[in-house]
Each structure stands twice: as C-alpha cells, then as structure tokens.
Amino acid sequence: MNKREVKSSVKDENLIEKRREQMIRGAVKLFKEKGFHRATTREIAKASGFSIGTLYEYIRTKEDVLYLVCDSIYNEVHDRLSALPTQEGTVEGLQVAINQYYHLIDDMSDEFLVMYQESKSLPKDALQYVLKKEMEMVALFESLLDACAKSGELRISTEQVGIAAHHIVVQGQMWAFRRWALHKSYTIEDYIRVQTDQLFRGLIGK
Amino acid sequence: MNKREVKSSVKDENLIEKRREQMIRGAVKLFKEKGFHRATTREIAKASGFSIGTLYEYIRTKEDVLYLVCDSIYNEVHDRLSALPTQEGTVEGLQVAINQYYHLIDDMSDEFLVMYQESKSLPKDALQYVLKKEMEMVALFESLLDACAKSGELRISTEQVGIAAHHIVVQGQMWAFRRWALHKSYTIEDYIRVQTDQLFRGLIGK
Amino acid sequence: MNKREVKSSVKDENLIEKRREQMIRGAVKLFKEKGFHRATTREIAKASGFSIGTLYEYIRTKEDVLYLVCDSIYNEVHDRLSALPTQEGTVEGLQVAINQYYHLIDDMSDEFLVMYQESKSLPKDALQYVLKKEMEMVALFESLLDACAKSGELRISTEQVGIAAHHIVVQGQMWAFRRWALHKSYTIEDYIRVQTDQLFRGLIGK
Amino acid sequence: MNKREVKSSVKDENLIEKRREQMIRGAVKLFKEKGFHRATTREIAKASGFSIGTLYEYIRTKEDVLYLVCDSIYNEVHDRLSALPTQEGTVEGLQVAINQYYHLIDDMSDEFLVMYQESKSLPKDALQYVLKKEMEMVALFESLLDACAKSGELRISTEQVGIAAHHIVVQGQMWAFRRWALHKSYTIEDYIRVQTDQLFRGLIGK
DNA sequence: AATGAATGAGTTTTCATTCAT
DNA sequence: GATGAATGAAAACTCATTCAT
Asked: In this structure, are A47 and A105 located in the same domain?
C-alpha cells in the first residue's frame, strides 16, 4: 500500500502498535486543548504516559505525531463506514450512510477538530495522503448519490452530485466545527434530521 | 463599542492606520504560506515593509497581528454586507445577500482561510470577539430568513431558520476551504447557483 | 573571491568583525581546553562575552565557529608570511621564511593545535577551503626551494622539492603538536636551528 | 604491568578477547568515517555485529572503545617493531627499523589516523597511557640513533638525537596524515627512500 | 518614530547508559 | 550472556520581545 510510513527504532511491532495508541490518545487530548504548535513534545510524551526519550523511539519528528493522529482518525472513519451494507441506489441506504457518518463525527468530534485545524502543519507528503483520504470520503457519497440518480430515486444532475457530496461531508464537519453554536440548540439527532430533510426535499422527485 | 483595542505606542492615528494596513497585507500573505505559528515576527515586519522594532511600535504581541487580521476581515465583510438595500422579506433580497456574501468570500478567500485556520490561536478575549462577529453574520441571515418566513415567501419552521442560516454561512466558507477540490469543477457563479437552487427548492412554498 | 561565507543576520559589518573576533578568541581558548565537540554553544557564547542568542546572530551553526577559527588562523599566517621580502633564490631568504613560519607557529600554537585536531569536523565545503589554504602553504615553500634549486644554491631534485616543502610545513606543525615533549628540552630557537641545520646539511651544494 | 584495564562484566576471557576484536574492527571503520564523537554507541554495536546491550557487557563507557582502539594499535606496532633483530649501532639496522616502521604505518594508516585525531578525547589516565606508548616509540629510535653515534657510524650530537628521533616518528605519521597530498606523487617506497636519504645525508660522516 | 542588536527562556531532538526479560 | 526498550540529561538552535541609539 502507499501508506506513508513513520519510522520507529523499536522492533517489536506489537509494542509499536500499543505505544502509538497511547500516543494518539494523549496527543489528541493535548492538541484539543492547546493545538499542535503550542503542545510541546515533552507534554505529548507525558500525556502519552512515557518519557521524552521513549516518545522518540516511536517517531522521528513532532510532525509524525500529527500524522499518526490524522491517519488513525481516517482509519476509524473508513472502518466504520465500510461496515455499511452495500447500497443499491436506495435513498434509505444513503440515509443510513449519512446517519453513520454524522454519528461518527459526533463521537469523534475532538479528533476531527484537531485534524482539520492542524493538518495544514503536516509535511507535504503527509498532507497529500490526508487529502487523498478526504477525497475518498467525498467519493463514497458521490457513488451513493450516483446510484440513487441512476435508480431514479433522486432527481439530481451530474453537476449537482459533486457538490451534494461535498455538502454532506462539509455539513458533517460543521457539526464538529460549530459545536459551540449548534450544541446549544440541537441534538445530533435533530441536526441529522434537519440536514437530511433539507437535502432530500430538493432532491427527491415529487 | 466593546471593540478589543490593540495598544500602540505611536500617537499619530493616521500613521497607525497606515502601518496596520501594511501589516495586515503582509501578514495575510505570510500566514497563507506558512501559517501563523511558522511565520516569525521578523518575517511579518519584513513582509510589512518595516523593521522589527517598528512592528512592535504598533502592536504589543504577535497575537495582536492575528487579531488585527481577523478584525479587518470581519470589518470588510460587515461593510460590504451592510451596504445592501434593506430587505423586506423577499426571496430576491435574500438571494442578493447570499450572492454578495459568496462573492465576498471568493474575493477574500485567502483571508478567510487564514482566519479560520488560525483564529484558535487568538487569546481568549480576542477569540470571543471574533466569534461574536461570526454570530452576527449568522444572525444577519437568520433575520433575512425570518422576514421571508413571516412574509410567507418561505415555508420554513423556526427550528430550520437557525440551521439554514448556519448552512448559508458554512457553504460560503466551504468555497474558501475546499478551493483545491471545487475550483476544478465549478466557477463561483456555478457554485452560487447550485447552492441557492438546492437551498430554495426545499424552502420555497409551492 | 571563493571565500566561503558565514551568514550573519546582523547588518553592521564593523560589528560583525568585532563580534567575530571576540568569538574566535573565546572559541580557541575553549576548544584548546575541551575540543570542539565537548564545547557547547552556550560555553562558546559565554567565553565570547555574549549570550547564546547573540552568538547565533553572527553564525548559522556551531560548525561555523570552527570554520571562522580555522579561517582566521590561515589569514594571519598568510598575512605574516606574505610580508616577507620577495626572495630570489637565496638560501638566506628561505631561512628567513622558515624562521618566520616557525615563530608564527610558536606564537599561535594553541590555534594551530585546535585547527589540526578539529578541522576534520568541518562540513565538506569548509574542509575543502582549509585544505586549499594548507596547500598554498606548501606551495609557498616549494617555490622558495625551487628558486634555490634553479639558482644553484641548493642541490635538490624536483622529486625532493615536494617532500622537502611538506617536511618544512610538517616540522613546523610538529612544534605545536609535540609541545608536551619538545618544550622540555628545547627553545623555539634551538628547534629552528636544529631543523634548518638538518635540512640544509643534506641540501647545500658543497 | 600498569596497563590500564577496561572492566567487563563477562567472565569468559576468550569471549572478551573475541568480542573486543570485533569491536575494534567495527569501531575503527566507523571512526574513520565519522570520527569518534559523531559515531554513536548504537552504531558501534551494530558495526561490531552485536546489540547495544552486549556492547556494554564488554565496556563501561564509550571512551573505553576509543581506548581499546588506541591500545590495540600500539600493541600491534610494538609487536611488529620488537620483532626486529637487535641492533648494534649500525646504520643498516637503523634503516631496517625505519623501513619497518614506515611500512607499518602504511599498512595501518586508517588506524593511525583515527588514533591521532581522536586520542585527545580519551580520559586523562588513558591519554597518559597512550602518550607513554608514544614516548616509547621515540625512545626506541633514540636508542638506535645513540648506538650509531657511539659506534661512530653517525656524526650526531646528543642534542640532535632527541629531535632526530621525533623527526623519524613524525615523518612516519606524516605519511598517514597527508595521504591526500602525498599519495598522488609518491609510493611508500619513494617516500621512505627520500626521507632516509635526507635524514642520513646530514648525519652520515662524509 | 524608526531601527536593529541583544537577550534568554523555551523548543525539538539526540544518545550514552541501564536493566528487566 | 544477549537483547533492546526505556530513560532523561544535555545539546543545538529559535524567536518573541526589549531598549539604546
């Protein structure tokens, strides 16, 4: 796979896995509070439960931590969405997917926030990789929308498919980004309902 | 007004104005390239056309620069939107407002990008101020939508008004955020048309 | 000139000159005691009489300090040797040159020691530059010897000229290197006398 | 003997011998490339063919490795020179010794280079020991020269004996130090011939 | 008002050494 | 005896901020 690798000087793969999980958990917590730049590597180590020396046994640079965080988020997203039943162009299937996606963001909104605010700090190649993942996300919804268009369940032009897919993805992110404004007035269920209503009202053939 | 002040040791108000304009222009360019944290005060001074010493005659801390940038963006947004003719609950008026807003974002997408990616680095009070400005933006569209609801031009529940206003604001930001994906396929005109179509199709009373 | 430049963020050339002199003096003293690698940049700064921040206003990396030290030594050597009256192939002239050179090394033996023990730590390009300077030194004596050979004052084959020149240069360095052994038994004057005697006894035509 | 000991936590003397040989071989190679300070203990272990943990079973500190390298070089030098037939004050015998010594340096010039460039990094007591070895080297040639003086084969004053002995030793080292300059023009045989010619021309009674 | 040299706390990163397995 | 993960002191270098000129 063309997965970007983060070099570690530790050999035991299981240990790497374990330590990196600790690291990601600690880092997300920290980045959420103070952002990537304001968090020091020493703080990351501490939040992860080990020493600064140990931290550097599992990464090469501070940016690697950010990459690992972003990568793990996308992996979780991918895992949870690919567990969906295959869709055959039904609006219902699309709705299930959107539902899953929005709930996922609600569950992981800290992680999402971190990723979206900090990913620009990734080195070039890592940024590329993250953008690719994001495009896959959009593509997933495009294909679902497309299937619905083909099956006739949605009246939607090709032009609209792209934007609608972005729309779905961005509205999801909005729930994470605008927590401070939205959580006061709506539950995630409200939000999903209103969003899908609005989306479909325009798209469903009368 | 409770406008947050940035202290300057220079007395001449005109000079302050002039130097800060230089500063904002330089800073936006720089932040766009490397982000707020990676840009040094020396670089900001250089990009602004004066020395580091002079820079500090017009601000107190580096964060002041970021605040000035964010503040100036909102001021421009405010100026351009408040120039609109007063609306009396017509869809057409709403459409004009959206149009203005989206074009504004298109014109200033660099600035918007910078503001959204970096505003979390503002000190507490400045962040508060910026969020307040953002809420005003949402409120503007809320009032426009509300007027339309009251006049009967839009079938829209009170619950929907809040989310629709956020929706409009976020879709505008999306044009700036997702330039890399959207500019390939759409012009700003396409984008506005598709967005407003989608928005209104669901909302306009039959 | 193809002199390798060390970048400074300070603009005032006179100040650069002055600060670098302080730096070289401090660094030589320190390197003599503990060597280049064991001397920390903080110690170098302190020994130079300024703060670590100021040190880095005048250099880019620690290796720059070493380069400046080596460069300044060669410049002094060059200055002192090029002040010699032009030689026209007399043994006497050669003797004056050797005399000068050996005294020079005696005066600067600390600096020489540092340079020879640490120059391998220079980055590639700087090492190149230093070796070039060293070759010039050898070449100087080669040309003096050559002139003596041509004028008939010395019976010396072309093959011998190169080695004899190296010999002179190395014997000079030996005085610095082996201080611990030689200074007990000889003064610099003794040393010069014995060395030149030995050199010439073989070379002077009967 | 007052041989400085390097403590090992391993009991088996044969194993110690074997592992240290591996270590010296690996270390010389590494030090040649990057110098003592730039070589890490991990790299030394790797170059020696075992783990960092094992390395520390056979030494106490990194400096021990350097000491072992220097010590082994001198032992080899000692072994090869003490194999010479006992001299009875003949110039021929002296010449054989010089020949042996120079060839030895030619064979081991990497090791010599490493030793001379890095020995200053030895801890005090180890440095002392190495210098003592070096003095023995000089003393060897002093006694050979002395014998020749006594037997009348060389016209050489007591004053000259010390310097001439140093001279021989240093000229040998010069062949290692100045490889980059000398190897282009001379073979080791040329070099020995020219050096001894020059040495003896002055010293041999006509 | 403008300049830019000076400062030093704070940052990332390295690496010799230890010690449980 | 061998391994390699863990440690943290110490290193090089940065940069926001100050202040004398």
From this structure: no
